[in-house]
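HUMAN: Quick job: go over this next protein and say how the chain folds.
***
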Amino acid sequence: MNIRNNLLVSFRHLKADKTNSIINIAGLTLGLAIVTVVLVFVLNELGYNQFVPERNRIYRLLNYNAADNNTWANTPFIAGETIADQFPEVEQFVHQYNIYDIEIKKNSEFIAEPNMICTESNFFSMFGIHVLHGSLSDFDQAQKEVLLSKSLAKKYFGKQNPVGKIMTLRSHGKEFPMEVAAVYADIPENSTIKASLITNVDFGMQHLRNSLISMGDNSDNKHFRESWEDGQFFTNYFLLKKGASVSAIEKKNEEAECRTFHR
């Protein structure tokens, strides 16, 4: 009974002073909306990379320029092998090369797909990304294989299983017929890694060479794989062994005048 009376009194006050009531209600609604937006943003940030099972053991190699205090993630390809050989604390590593200008043919149209990476097959086990269809058995050596995320596979093939089918990629005006070798689970949006399609490192090297040839650089793949100065186009990720001391690795790294780790 008291609740009913309180509601009636409240409604009477609202009707008696409509202007203030509207202002108060609008302010309350706006405040709740702002709190909701902030809460969603905070939860999204706190959930960044949470899908990676071993995220606390994975580190990214960074380049650092002491002259201007600038840090960036592109490092030489050879750094991966070198650091894995020199530091027994490293369990495994992967290279990553990003391609932002790839296009995929659908019917007679080419559609831009900016989230493409080139890497090795152990990328999937290292980051805990599940392969849903197909196989990675020949991926590292294959000349013309591509892997698709679940969403991208649906975009281009609908409900069909795309494994074994051919799709055409285009970059720098050149077309590349590629066989779909596997489909993997979508990588969440709140992730450092953005990859809706993946090819192997050899394709990345070819893309890099084509990009630099257009600028007058005729360096070959062997040069990019072995050069410390001219091969700084890759991201190197390292999975450390359980219990490994990051500070000890950083100290060794600095002593070797190499680079520095950043999680």
User: Anything to note?
Assistant: The CA atoms of residues 168 and 185 lie 22 Å apart.
